[in-house]
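Lab notebook, page 48
Experiment: co-folding of the full assembly
Goal: obtain a model of how the components sit together before planning crosslinking
Operator: M.T.
Materials (sequences as entered):
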Amino acid sequence: MSGRHVLVTGGAGFIGSHLVEALLERGDRVRVLDSFDPYYDPAVKRRNLQGALDDIELLEGDLRDLGLLARAVQGVDSVVHLAARAGVRSSLELPVSYMEVNVAGTQGLLEAMREAGVTHLVAASSSSVYGARSQGPFRESDPLGVPASPYAASKHAMEIVCRTWQQLFDLQLTMLRFFTVYGPRQRPDMAIHGFARKIKAGEPITMFGDGSTLRDYTYIGDIVKGLLASVDRPLPCAVLNLGNTNPIRLDALIRKLGHALGIDPQVVRSGNQPGDVPLTWADVSLANQLLGYRPTTSLEQGLERFVGWLEQV
Ligand SMILES: NC(=O)c1ccc[n+]([C@@H]2O[C@H](COP(=O)([O-])OP(=O)(O)OC[C@H]3O[C@@H](n4cnc5c(N)ncnc54)[C@H](O)[C@@H]3O)[C@@H](O)[C@H]2O)c1
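Observation: model returned without errors.
Model output:
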């Protein structure tokens, strides 16, 4: 389908900029709201959007600005809400800001949508809402554990706020729980990106814990397919995992990344990090049933593409 008018909040970020390009490619009209937040270098975000700038409407400003939100939602068919303070570890240092942006910011967006009569929202949640679990795969119907970080708490709270609005005002709502997304333009604070730069520079990398933590690394191209399908198929109310269904140990990830880079990584061990969870592992059968979502990129293929991109920036 094409020809929709879509607002993408956080459209200059890692996931957002890939989605913006995919929407443009198929002929959708795109408006982006992004504050170019300094959590990581805003120049990186400007580069992310560079190729799309002539074809989008860019509203530069903060999600917490209610006047800006009112303009941002005017006349759109769907809102894809990706703007957030992301990152588990930094949330332990700035918990208030995580709540202000991820929870209060989302509430402002919902209110702006209601006032403008915009009824379709796709919102980014996170595997972190499942809490610290050692058994998987994680299903959307599972009870959610205690959030292990302020970031996880903010995403859990965001889901509750969206769900409340959905019930009060008949919103069509799809909340997508992303599982560790990676690929070209990945946020520099994330493990694969941070490790790769150090390995390339011949520096040792710090592995927190004993290497046994498991993550379901999901390639950006697969996530974008799930996002596009969510834009195309408004659902009354759904929470869906978007993952790869194949958790990998941290020490194995480091080996595979070293292989993709052609360099043997030097690893320094350190203690467990507060906020980290032992396992993420998505069951994606519901996303498959409702969206036709099926991840197709293996970790090896995805790492190769990521390394190819890193060589060029
Ligand atoms: N990358 C992952 O593995 C992952 C996993 C689970 C969930 N998520 C969620 O997906 C979304 C996108 O993540 P990402 O990795 O692309 O992060 P990102 O930091 O690259 O993108 C987020 C964007 O939001 C913008 N932003 C931040 N605060 C803002 C504010 N107050 N007002 C307006 N814009 C603001 C930033 O400038 C940035 O461009 C986030 O909601 C994140 O929580 C990501």
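Interpretation: Residues 19 and 84 are 16 Å apart (CA to CA).
Next step: discuss with group before ordering constructs.
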